[in-house]
Amino acid sequence: MVTCPSVRSVYKAGLTEHLSVLVSALSPTDAAAQWASGEPPVSASSCCFTTMSSSTPSTANGTDDKKYKGERSPCDPSRVLHIRRVPIEVSEAEVVSLGVPFGKVTNLLLLKGKNQAFIEMASEEAAITMVNYYTTATPHVRNQPVYIQYSNHRELKTDNLPNQGRAQAALQAVNAMHSGNMTLSGTATASDGGMMPGQSPVLRLIVENLYYPVSLEVLHQIFSKFGTVLKIITFTKNNQFQALLQYADPMNAHHAKVALDGQNIYNGCCTLRVEFSKLTSLNVKYNNDKSRDFTRLDLPSGDGQPTLDPTMQSAFGAPGIISSPYPGAAGFAPAIGFHQAGLSMQTMPGALGHLTIPSSAMTGRMTIHGMAPTAIHSVLLVSNLNPESISPHGLFILFGVYGDVHRVKILFNKKENALIQMADATQAQLAMSHLNGQRLHGKVIRVTISKHQTVQLPREGQEDQGLTKDFSGSPLHRFKKPGSKNFQNIFPPSATLHLSNIPPSTTDDFLKDLFASSGYTVKAFKFFQKDRKMALIQLGSVEEAIQALIDLHNHDLGENHHLRVSFSKSTI
């Protein structure tokens, strides 16, 4: 285990050489081992993880804790964030710009020689929102990916450190610009086709020759290559699929427009037309398949509500909303793991490969031509679990809402972490997008794609304490049948639950008492008018609803009926 020096001792000394202790990097041997495993080397500054053994194969995930050293256990949330793999030529303003979309940045420590930085947010809530967002959308600085995690330091004390004048000036400038809807100035001029002063971070997108479906998720994957995408709204106008997309930085919008305007999303079709919007920011009210605010995980799905607010509707004349082109999960496009996938741009560094749509796209599944089968895995790493309350069965029921769970392993010596193997990578991505950042047993869980390709069952005679379960033959799988209606009823966790398979003789009082006696606050209940086999029940919070689904899904109601519970997009 890497040990961390006392922050107080480092800053009290006030000597520059102590910075090498604060952000000391791994040895070359350890770094090489991490690169060999497919993960970038990590510094010791955050003290939230252990180094990886280079001899550990990707499928070796038995109960021995040593085999999991590559899966870093995250720190508790902190308003101080550690940024790794920062390009040496980066400016203070660029680092600060990573944080300002999520709240005020109050301090900065940039260590170019170590390719690292620390930023301090004004609040822990802002830091949590930022980490949740960047968990699923890796930020890029100067076309290079950077990695952000919580630091175990609670605050940055840089008053006595040299060369902090530039950092403080950048903090004041960027924070002021962001709060005043100003932009960072670029080096290009209007005369040479560069960025104009005051240019908007919002792009308007039109997709022409729409022979194949283009979803919000596809746009996010493509445009994230050029910077942090904060919000997306899709709509129709003049029978054309259009979208508004907001970046964190106007310079990112400028680069995306230059690179993507006129490019085909798929070979020979779905041509992008990109222009700057007159809007300077987007107001997203709902997170669903038509609109998304990636900085706000708490927004409702807004069933049947307009995507655009009245001011945007009048500006874009879009009273209609585009219906999802996918027949899959509740209008959400199948989650796609793009590994260098996107458009073909020969002149751009790190050019993205061609996308092609095979016939499988028309059945709700998309495959990326030329993408290695191992580019994305079907195994999830779930961390920050409550070890006193969690069980393999509970995780099976919860993650089974978004796909068929084959195996669950709670780590033997780190019971706050678990590995969950889904039926395929699409289901793993779907579960991650809906469950990352949700509260379970009083803790905010974090869900990421694991480096492991499978979850190994314990060897015969090996101590396991029932922490590993194989559910591949379970009758409770929701998605075994091709074309099942369950694919059309997948929604994010909400306080309202959808109940089905209810016996004809069951009353509303019986069901309300069932939930209340289990410790849940029942706020509202109603049967479906046309089918009393189904009902909606609204509980006190999303966290309560998550726990109730785990506890009461498949509950025996008698008369050979077992209750089916899922999340609803509706409210009562």
Using only CA atoms, what is the Rg? 25 Å
Largest sheet: 6 strands, antiparallel
**What structural category arises from helix and sheet content?**
alpha+beta
Q: How many angstroms separate the termini?
A: 51 Å
What would you call the quaternary organization? single chain
Poorly predicted runs of 5 or more residues: 1-47, 49-60, 62-73, 180-195, 311-375
Strand composition percent? 15-25%
How many β-strand runs? Answer: 25
Q: Give the overall pLDDT as a whole number.
A: 73
By DSSP (H or I, 4+ residues per run), the number of helices equals 13
Proportion of helical residues: 10-25%
Strand order of the largest sheet: 10-11-7-9-8-12
CA-based shape: globular
Region (Disordered): 52-74
Protein name: Polypyrimidine tract-binding protein 1
InterPro entries: HnRNP-L/PTB (IPR006536), HNRNPL_RRM (IPR055204), Nucleotide-bd_a/b_plait_sf (IPR012677), PTBP1-like_RRM2 (IPR021790), RBD_domain_sf (IPR035979), RRM_dom (IPR000504)
Biased composition (Basic and acidic residues): 63-74
